[in-house]
Write a structure and sequence with these properties.
By secondary structure, the chain is α+β, with helices and mostly antiparallel strands. The chain has helices spanning about 5-15, 55-60, 85-95, 120-130; strands spanning about 15-30, 40-45, 50-55, 70-75, 100-105, 110-115.
């Protein structure tokens, strides 16, 4: 499988990037009610289909949501078989009192944090990658 598997290398190489925009988590019963090109990701659960989209788009089609999030991408190609990356960065965010919702995609990990915590989360992740957090 492609991607980095060495935890120390992944932490050193990760570059947290704050994506522009405000994002929301919503649930729908079927994807046909949304423009899939406007959805960041979707995941089918037994209760419904979770989607994450920009707040403005969700508002424009009348979707309900709780909370507004910022989207941080970790610019390191971590393997889907890598062990410890999520635990390491989520623990660093936990230590700072920052809740996170994580999506592991094929090439990168993506973290959604409350909008008010975005800058603090970026700073924490940068410190972690520089070895300034144990």
């Amino acid at each position: 499988m492609s991607g980095e598997t060495n935890l120390s290398a992944m932490i050193r190489q990760m570059r947290p990037l704050l994506n522009a925009g405000d994002y929301v988590f919503c649930t729908v019963n079927e994807l046909s009610i949304v423009n899939i090109d406007r959805v960041v990701f979707h995941f089918k659960e037994k209760e419904g289909i979770t989607i994450v989209a920009e707040k403005n788009y969700a508002d424009s089609i009348g979707l309900n949501y709780e909370g507004i999030f910022s989207w941080i991408s970790l610019d390191v190609h971590s393997s889907l078989n890598a062990v410890g990356l999520t635990a390491t960065f989520s623990n660093a965010l936990y230590e700072e009192g920052i809740a996170c919702n994580v999506v592991a995609a094929f090439y990168h990990d993506h973290i959604f944090v409350g909008k008010a915590d975005a800058e603090k989360a970026i700073d924490t992740l940068k410190k972690l990658s520089l070895g300034n957090i144990n």
